[in-house]
Write a structure and sequence with these properties.
This protein has helices at 40-52, 70-73; strands at 5-11, 20-26, 31-33, 62-64. The chain is an alpha+beta fold. The chain has one domain (5-73). A four-stranded mixed beta sheet has the order 1-2-3-4, covered by helices on one side.
């Protein structure tokens, strides 16, 4: 069995540090590692890049947050 595909999703933040990365592990269950900052811009970037993988937010069954900063968990409640 081949290893799962890992998609990097890049989202902007309002911080000087620049963008952050989330990772979509295309395996069962579909898993997202980190979720970006809660802004309209980051949400749009996330949805666009997720759609490019052929997936939708409703397909994500597991979310892993690496640590408790808002640029890593902000879009977790995103349901549309």
């Amino acid at each position: 069995m081949p290893p799962p595909t890992i998609h990097r999703i890049v989202m902007t933040t309002p911080y000087g540090v620049g963008p952050v990365n989330a990772y979509l592990i295309d395996a069962e269950p579909l898993t997202l590692i980190d979720a970006g900052f809660q802004t309209d811009e980051a949400k749009a970037e996330f949805q666009t890049q997720l759609a490019a993988t052929g997936r939708d937010v409703s397909d994500i069954k597991r979310v892993l947050i690496t640590h408790g900063h808002p640029d890593h968990y902000g879009l977790v409640p995103c349901d549309d």
